[in-house]
């Protein structure tokens, strides 16, 4: 990358229109390469790309724009077999039934609708557990209040549906 930057700007007067144009093109080219490298490597590297997209005060805008446009919206989705193998590895079996199509995916995880052994939606239990923890934290630390009305109504909707 460093060599390509030097080569692309070679012989151009620093600060000139040609130099600025070439620098912009090289920034775009390498932002795209870095984006593809992050996606190819997956996991924590996608998280790194997301972080780079937030460093507008340090990183050239071409990198910020490229990372923001892709890293937050185009996270990879694991296959049903990959998800099943995680269940087997972590839980020893795949007795829970889950929807093979994820509800959402992120840099380090993805979400699937699932049912417990007794046929209950697991999401309901998860949301209830999170609600319990958040309410306890607010009771114990009153300044710590994540029980905002808009969040509560979303959780209540999820519990009902």
Automatic annotation (TrEMBL):
Signal peptide: none annotated. Pfam families: ABC1. PANTHER family: AARF DOMAIN-CONTAINING PROTEIN KINASE 1 (PTHR43173:SF19), ABC1 FAMILY PROTEIN (PTHR43173). GO terms for biological process: lipid homeostasis; mitochondrion organization. Transmembrane segments: none annotated. GO terms for cellular component: mitochondrial inner membrane. Residues 71-122 form the ABC1 atypical kinase-like domain. This is ABC1 protein At2g40090 isoform X7. The lineage of its organism: Eukaryota, Viridiplantae, Streptophyta, Embryophyta, Tracheophyta. The gene is LOC103698679. It comes from Phoenix dactylifera.
